[in-house]
Design brief:
flat; mainly alpha
Length: 91
């Protein structure tokens, strides 16, 4: 297995533990949940793209930045919605 994959899975496992601890202590909010997931997916995207090609041109670098930004915004919005569905106050 690749070291990038192993590090990503270890970080994901650590994030799951942190989210579970924060949820249990009542410290988790929709914004925190979304920011944690968006940060992880930003790291995951960046490490996955950089693992493939280390010598990127300026055009590829701009594409990576735009792709990472788009994924982060999408994950943030979806994570807030998912957290709201799971832990809505109306239930």
């Amino acid at each position: 297995m690749d070291i990038t994959f192993i590090s990503n899975m270890l970080i994901l496992f650590g994030i799951c533990i942190v989210i579970a601890i924060m949820q249990r202590k009542g410290m988790m909010t929709a914004k925190r949940f979304a920011l944690i997931l968006a940060a992880y997916f930003l790291y995951f995207t960046t490490s996955a793209i950089n693992a493939v090609d280390l010598s990127m041109s300026q055009r590829d670098l701009k594409f990576e930045v735009l792709l990472s930004f788009g994924i982060s915004v999408f994950v943030y919005l979806m994570a807030r919605w998912i957290y709201g569905e799971w832990y809505s106050r109306n239930s």
